[in-house]
Amino acid sequence: MNMSKRPLPCVLLAAVLFVLAGCGRNDPPPASMTAGDEASQPADAAQKPASAATSAPAVLDVTGARIIAADSEPGNWFSHGRGYDEQRFSPLDLINADNVGGMSLAWYYDLETDRGLEATPLVVDGTIYTTGTWSIVYAFNAISGKLLWKFDPEVPKEWAVHLCCDAVNRGVALWEDKVYVGTLDGRLIALDGGTGEPVWSVQTTDRSRPYSITGAPRVVKGRVIIGNGGSELGVRGYVSAYDAASGELDWRFYTVPGDPSEPFESPALEMAAATWKGGEWWKIGGGGTVWDSMAYDPDLDLLYIGVGNGSPWNRHIRSPGGGDNLFLSSIVALRPDSGEYVWHYQTTPGESWDYTATQHMILADVEIDGQRREVLMQAPKNGFFYVLDRATGELISAEKFVEITWATHVDPETGRPVETEGARYSEKPVFTLPSPLGAHNWHPMSYSPLTGLVYIPVQEMPWVYGQAEDFEYQPGFWNTGTEMVLAALPEDADNRKAVLAMTRGHIAAWDPVAQTEVWRVQHPGIWNGGLLSTAGNLVMQGNAHGEFAVYRADNGEKLWSMPVQTGVVAAPVTYLADGEQYVTVMVGWGGVAALAGGEITARSGVRNVSRVLTFRLGGEAELPPLPPIERLLPELPELTADAAMLQSGRKLYTDRCSVCHGDGVVSGGVLPDLRYLDKEGHDAWQAIVLGGLHRERGMVSFAQVLSVQDSEAVHAYVLSRAHALKNGQP
Ligand code: CA
């Protein structure tokens, strides 16, 4: 695809800010940037006697047997969720509820990028393998934090317009001597574990469509399993398996039916196609992307994939005759050798709210009614906590883990949600809980077999859904089929205050057997980090208000915390090196809510500082002081637009710009705030927005979806928000 001819949507604004504020990756590093490749830590720690890990790094050698027996090597973190069961529980207890008060920073490493960090680091035999923004891969010495190698796949920044949710990546996979990463532009790359040199690279997607990869691959029986994203923009979802040694495509499983004039790719799709009625979904893509969660049961030999929302969200447009629209919002079990369908469970039939089932899936064996059950657990966006029999897909139980309005309950007989009247919005807008950000998003949960509790990073946030007037498919741009401006924070002060007050997050310690909340830690805002639990009776989480904190796993008592100078969205991991227990977490505010949230996320006051932080008992490193932000409102051009033009600008801004630049032109702390645009920026507005002046920084031309008048209306609205700020209005 010729990117220069293809403007992209949400990234546009992001790109603009990016450009205007000079936050491209070629900019000089922040003052806090670590010099050279050395992590920052006290000299005595750096001179620690060399261990096997420091003097001669072990050759990377990860096998299926080692991942399956992960509990026998608790010092390593082999796969995304530690083991194939994705429990994110560590048997390590050297750091525990009695001594965690003595935990402190061992080392930190400043990354050169300034967007969200979502990765789960993997740790094997003293080396950390992780990813930053723009799909960059890093290997660090786990004790010293020294950078061993780095690989930058050089994703074109213009690709940002294809990204719904920031230039993020959630981590790598390891197999034998290689490291695997999926890139934002759809490549799957195998790297040499010792050097970071590429061994093979394959394009897993059609580059003429707005596909992206942000999820971590998994490797099962010598096959690298990788999905993709893009359902907001319009793609057809699938998951692929590549030979880990050669990069050859082994199989591909599509999650939604394609063009009905073509043959079905699998018998499962023939079954699925009967649940799509009317409409021309295949032109937009249908959706169903597998953008994050997977799990594997080696005894049952089943690979589980979590499937995303519809393209577009709105079923009235996608499938006007109704129907369940399989396999949207489903958990699907496949044979890892062939990609053959085994069973599915659909959490949200006829998905219409962006209620994906891509959220974290945990496999565990629990006792229910006196019987040992092999279960799969998921708390998807729709607000129900599901416990399924993972051999058959049978529903064992489902209960609300947070207040929701779209359904009353899940019918235990049919396994289907019972929707509330009017939940399926039409022209008439519907106030709804939860929002498309989900009652739970991608942020990993954790399950402790010791407490029997699942720790869920829960979100409480409403949304107003309404059908888009005059929906027209815009290839490569956001296509939800909903009226996004309805969900913008209300302009009325009282209403805005009410929505802000109900938009919060918490950790829920959930008993999956009784389906009840055992304890809760309330947070002031949404978009808090993923979780880790350990045998030390600990639960760890970084949060959206800039701290990393540790709680007792059995009762939620806060035991320790540290301010980390930035919002945290990623999940921590823990490992052993040289006989000592360490905790590592990627910190760096970002992701879709941090970009789009406006005042909802801006109120926490955090910004992006991209770092790897590693803790241990008695660590002696200290973070440098955070440089102050200089934000002076520049002289503003006069505002001449009338009310009608401003309303039009607000709607266009919300549709095309807010996903990156923030609701109400309020930056959530990642991209520069457009209200501070200087005279040069205002003068160059049309050249940037329509001319693509800053495309190399990700802000492509939006001429495909904005006319000259449209762009002027957006400009007027942005200017009005800057004037409002200057006049002291919210
Ligand atoms: Ca989505």
Q: Could you describe the largest sheet, including whether it forms a barrel?
A: 5 strands, mixed
Number of E-type strands: 39
Report the CATH topology name of the largest domain.
Answer: Methanol Dehydrogenase, Chain A
Rg, Cα atoms, Å? 24 Å
Average pLDDT taken over every residue: 92
What is the overall shape?
A: globular
Tell me what the CATH architecture of the largest domain is. Answer: 8 Propeller
Strand order of the largest sheet: 1-33-34-35-36
Report the CATH C-level class of the largest domain.
Mainly Beta
Instruction: Give the helix/strand class.
Output: alpha+beta
Q: Which features characterize this protein?
A:
single chain, 730 residues, alpha+beta, Methanol Dehydrogenase, Chain A, Cytochrome Bc1 Complex, Chain D, domain 2, 2 domains, 5-stranded mixed beta sheet, 15 helices, disordered N terminus, binds calcium ion
Question: Would you mind describing this structure in some detail?
Answer:
With 730 residues, the chain is an alpha+beta fold. It folds into 2 domains: 32-617, 8 Propeller (Methanol Dehydrogenase, Chain A); 643-726, Cytochrome Bc1 Complex, Chain D, domain 2 (Orthogonal Bundle). Helices cover 15% and strands 27% of the residues. The chain has 15 helices and 39 strands. The chain has a 5-stranded mixed sheet, with no helix packed on it. A 4-stranded antiparallel sheet has the order 2-39-38-37, with no helix packed on it. Strand 34 and strand 35 (547-552) form a beta hairpin. The chain starts with 9 loop residues before the first helix and ends with a helix. The model is unreliable at 1-36 and 43-55 (pLDDT under 50). The structure holds calcium ion.
